[in-house]
């Protein structure tokens, strides 16, 4: 009887929802999220000429916006080395299902990227009812800022990191007699890895914000471990990028900037917390 009474009280505290009710709610959030990804995946699959012909294969062609911009900058600064007007490689499909598999894979990734704000919104809708009012107020705008940083990171990976990495790898030769003929699977996988890795790494300020809100980190701690953070960021950049120093530095630099932004965020949160505690002490 005591156990039944405890369960009833627990359900009342949670708004009358049992554990099975939470599971059912989670199931519907997941189903809607998967449905959104599938819708955008099908749309991307049908728009093959745009998604694959222009978006996926864009960085493999010299008329890509990044290469054209670099050539304009090189003319303006009179530095010919900046202009990328030749990409000495060809893309081949060496497997029977290679092109279809990459078409399907790239469509799924595009569907995931486009649907990301809705995915996070569904996750947030499931998590937010369990938060206290103060936590909800502190996390206000989470969907917007997480989505903004995600697309900023994906754009950085697609327009900056991927083209420069592709240019470096296509021009790298052990011997002039060795031709660069990349498999379509290798090309698409490298592009996806660079874009998604950048999108995820750009979430660093959000991670620091919530860690600071929970009291797990402080601005002083982040500053004291700045050198360690630089080493860790460089290691992560080396793992998720092609084996060239240019790509590693390119992705490490904005992450280091975001780390400094995180320190500023943590410092502001500490000031707000201190003001609030001082006001509460005066009231008491």
Can you describe what's shown?
It is a single chain. This protein starts with a helix and ends with a helix. It contains 13 helices and two strands; from the N terminus they run ααααβααααβααααα. The relative contact order is 0.09. It has helices at 2-13, 19-46, 48-56, 65-77, 98-114, 116-127, 133-138, 142-171, 184-201, 204-213, 219-224, 226-240, 245-283, and strands at residues 90-92, 181-183. A two-stranded parallel ribbon has the order 1-2. By secondary structure, it is an all-alpha fold. Residues 1-15 have low confidence and may be disordered.
Concise summary:
With 284 residues, this protein is mainly alpha-helical. Helices cover 76% and strands 2% of the residues.
Helical proportion, percent range: over 70%
Low-confidence runs = 1-15
Mean pLDDT metric? 83
* Major sheet: arrangement of strands: 1-2
Number of helices: 13
The assigned structural class equals: mainly alpha
Oligomeric nature of the chains: single chain
Order of helices and strands: HHHHEHHHHEHHHHH
| Alpha-carbon distance between the two ends | 42 Å
Largest sheet: 2 strands, parallel
Number of DSSP-assigned strands: 2
The percent range for strand residues is under 5%
Indicate the overall shape.
globular
Report the C-alpha radius of gyration, rounded: 24 Å
